[in-house]
Write a structure and sequence with these properties.
The structure is a homodimer of 94-residue chains. The first copy, chain A, has 94 residues and is an alpha+beta fold. Chain A has 4 helices and 3 strands; from the N terminus they run H-E-H-H-E-E-H. Chain A is 55% helix and 19% strand. The two termini of chain A are 13 Å apart. Chain A binds a DNA duplex (30 and 30 nucleotides) through helix 2, helix 3 and strand 3.
DNA sequence: TAAAGTAGTTTATAAAATAAACCAAAATAT
DNA sequence: ATATTTTGGTTTATTTTATAAACTACTTTA
């Protein structure tokens, strides 16, 4: 009955990141930091975990002369997020 | 936009416990252990946390000669669960 | 009456989240 | 020109959380 929830996604900050990337498809570090109201350190760590899981792609480039990290969700990430939402429903009676 | 999720509820096992108690209203330790597929130790710890938060009531009695711990959700618990579900929706686009 | 099972709690360990400290380069003020 | 602050992060340390292992007390069964 109760499905096992993907632990990579079931973390408040990572869930927030995934949620944002599902909507916007592409977002830079600064935007994610503002929207999630997280610290840079925490965000950096969680982005790395999502990247290692293959759920997001992280690209490093420059915006003018300043470094810029851009993130986007992968196909695997979309599927994992959708499965997570489905599994979660078993807990929420939806 | 993204709401802060109640950390007492946002834990897989505690969410499962709350979800079960919302439905059945009353459940003993054994039932919760089976349904959640958790270890007794982990279950014991998480029940105590929910009790300390005022979200559940834990009553110790006997079933025949064997000790029996019975749990039920409180009004506070119901409200917290409902708020959690609402807040969660901001992440899931529902 | 010894061994095994039940119903848990307590304590120790592992994993995760978060915060603090740090780094390199750019922009700004002196 | 050069010191100071700001930006955009990463790395490391600390705290918190989850989980597992060990233990307790009593009961049932062999």
């Amino acid at each position: 009955m109760l499905k096992k929830l993907d632990p990579i996604i079931h973390s408040e900050l990572r869930l927030a990141i995934m949620s944002l990337l599902i909507s916007v498809n592409r977002a830079d570090f600064k935007y994610l930091k503002e929207e999630t109201e997280s610290t840079a350190g925490n965000l950096s760590v969680q982005l790395t975990k999502l990247e290692e899981a293959g759920y997001i792609k992280v690209e490093k480039g420059f915006k003018g002369k300043m470094p810029q990290t851009t993130c986007s969700i992968t196909k695997m990430g979309i599927e994992a997020f959708e499965k997570y939402v489905e599994d979660l429903k078993s807990y929420l009676k939806m």
